[in-house]
From TrEMBL:
<dbReference type="InterPro" id="IPR011549">
    <property type="entry name" value="RibD_C"/>
</dbReference>
<feature type="domain" description="CMP/dCMP-type deaminase">
    <location>
        <begin position="35"/>
        <end position="157"/>
    </location>
</feature>
<keyword id="KW-0862">Zinc</keyword>
<dbReference type="InterPro" id="IPR002125">
    <property type="entry name" value="CMP_dCMP_dom"/>
</dbReference>
<keyword id="KW-0521">NADP</keyword>
<dbReference type="Pfam" id="PF01872">
    <property type="entry name" value="RibD_C"/>
</dbReference>
<dbReference type="GO" id="GO:0008835">
    <property type="term" value="F:diaminohydroxyphosphoribosylaminopyrimidine deaminase activity"/>
</dbReference>
<keyword id="KW-0378">Hydrolase</keyword>
<dbReference type="Pfam" id="PF00383">
    <property type="entry name" value="dCMP_cyt_deam_1"/>
</dbReference>
<keyword id="KW-0479">Metal-binding</keyword>
<comment type="pathway">
    <text>Cofactor biosynthesis; riboflavin biosynthesis; 5-amino-6-(D-ribitylamino)uracil from GTP: step 3/4.</text>
</comment>
<feature type="compositionally biased region" description="Polar residues">
    <location>
        <begin position="11"/>
        <end position="31"/>
    </location>
</feature>
<dbReference type="InterPro" id="IPR050765">
    <property type="entry name" value="Riboflavin_Biosynth_HTPR"/>
</dbReference>
<protein>
    <recommendedName>
        <fullName>Riboflavin biosynthesis protein RibD</fullName>
        <ecNumber>3.5.4.26</ecNumber>
        <ecNumber>1.1.1.193</ecNumber>
    </recommendedName>
</protein>
<comment type="pathway">
    <text>Cofactor biosynthesis; riboflavin biosynthesis; 5-amino-6-(D-ribitylamino)uracil from GTP: step 2/4.</text>
</comment>
<dbReference type="InterPro" id="IPR024072">
    <property type="entry name" value="DHFR-like_dom_sf"/>
</dbReference>
<keyword id="KW-0560">Oxidoreductase</keyword>
Length: 395
């Protein structure tokens, strides 16, 4: 049983059992979703998150099978190459899948990849209804799974908790649509807009709760990027600092390769490190890094887009930029950042030469400012977190 990531099965004592279907309350794109549907979709998202940071290039997907208002099977997609969430949920439900309603946060697939199509699996299991959180983002296959199910007489309801479903897989969606990983720029600054002191010292700008959030954020990303200066000045670990949780690939962009030999990033026992540099840079140091187990790669042009293109080829969905302002400006200008997470600490450090989160973007007037949309503010311990997306106009 351990082989299958099924987390709960039917049984009166299961805490997830929810009694009878409730009256319909929420209108959706096609059909009407009830409160019960919403709760089941939230459960799918919860299940999907169990594989956080491990599924790329595939999406995070969870699935629940409900028979007579009771959960009879659950599952999630654990990693690429393994069966999809619906397969695990149907296996857990067994015969009780017949006539059941299946919830899944992403449209069931309809093509033969490494595994057979889930649409066929659902039809073969004899399910009566499928509730889908969001349609497949790939324009070439979007709606195919839903159409196949409907053609076989399965009722399909689409668009329950869609915003939450889209956010959970924003990296996967961006990867499909733009052939690049989704870029998140995260920084911590003082109330007067500094990410370090005049001397470059930055440990710590924020409080422990905010740093805990950053560890969580890393767990959901495939790679985290810094530049050479951050390695020289901060000597970071860039790990998730938690047992059994995903550690992203730690990526250093350095043109000169004039880096310390005792950096924490060269210890690859906990997490792998990749150093990206320019052709011909410091061959001696490249050799030293390779002996330490660090992967080194020379790129003809060390730009944020070339790096993101390489990380796309590695199958990555989400990449976290944890660099200083110079590289951050270059990443934004190069279209490698889609989302910003700014932690703001209520402290003032001053310093006319203290570094700020984003270096020169070449703008002269305030009207040129990059605008964020879908902005949210939240208190994290004693700090404030501002989240938002760069608008399409900026890209
Ligand atoms: N509070 C925070 O959130 C936070 C986060 C990170 C850093 N920091 C602080 O930020 C300061 C460092 O800032 P920084 O801007 O120099 O950061 P950085 O993250 O070190 O980025 C700059 C370095 O990136 C490398 N690089 C490679 N390709 C590049 C490209 N295309 N464009 C630009 N840079 C490229 C260069 O390394 P080489 O010189 O090796 O060639 C360059 O010196 C430190 O004081 C650190 O403490 C604060
Ligand atoms: Zn599938």
């Amino acid at each position: 049983m351990d082989k299958f990531p099924v987390v709960a099965q039917a049984g009166a004592s299961q805490p997830n059992n929810i009694q009878q279907h409730e009256p319909s309350t929420q209108a959706s794109a096609q059909g009407v979703a009830s409160d019960f549907d919403v709760r089941m979709m939230q459960r799918c998202l919860e299940l999907a998150r169990r594989a956080l940071g491990r599924t790329s290039p595939n999406p995070l997907v969870g699935s629940v099978v409900v028979q007579d208002g009771e959960i009879v099977g659950e599952g999630f997609h654990p990693r690429a190459g393994e069966p999809h969430a619906e397969v695990f949920a149907l296996r857990a439900a067994g015969e009780r899948a017949r006539g059941a309603t299946v919830y899944v946060n992403l449209e069931p697939c309809n093509h033969y990849g490494r595994t057979p199509p889930c649409s066929e699996g659902l039809i073969a299991a004899g399910v009566a209804k499928v509730v889908v959180g969001m349609v497949d983002p790939n324009p070439l296959v979007a709606g195919g799974g839903i159409a196949r199910l409907r053609a076989a007489g399965v009722e399909v309801l689409v668009g329950v908790e869609t915003a939450a479903c889209e956010q959970l897989n924003e990296g996967f969606v961006h990867r499909i649509l733009y052939k690049r990983p989704f870029g998140i720029l995260k920084y911590a600054m003082t109330l007067d807009g500094k990410i370090a002191t005049n001397s470059g010292h930055s440990a710590w700008v924020t409080n422990p709760s905010a740093r805990g959030e950053v560890h969580q954020l890393r767990a959901g990303c495939d790679a985290v990027i810094v530049g050479g200066n951050t390695v020289r000045l901060d000597n970071p670990y860039l790990t998730s600092h938690q047992e059994g949780v995903n550690n992203p690939l730690r990526v250093v962009m350095s043109r000169q390769l004039d880096l310390p030999t005792d950096a924490r990033l060269w210890d690859t026992a906990q997490a792998p490190t990749l150093v990206l540099t320019q052709v011909g840079a410091n061959p001696e140091f490249q050799k030293f890094l390779q002996q330490k187990g660090v992967e080194v790669m020379e790129l003809p042009s060390l730009t944020p887009d070339a790096v993101m293109s390489h990380l796309y080829d590695r199958g990555f969905c989400s990449v976290l930029w944890e660099c200083g302002g110079t590289l951050a400006a270059s990443a934004i200008a190069g279209g490698a950042v889609q989302k910003i997470l700014a932690f703001i600490a209520p402290k003032i450090i001053g310093g006319s030469h203290a570094p700020t989160p984003v270096g020169d973007l070449g703008f002269d007037t305030m009207t040129q400012a990059l605008l964020l949309e879908r902005v949210r503010w939240r208190v994290v311990g004693s700090d404030c977190l501002v989240e938002g997306y760069l608008t399409a106009k900026n890209q």
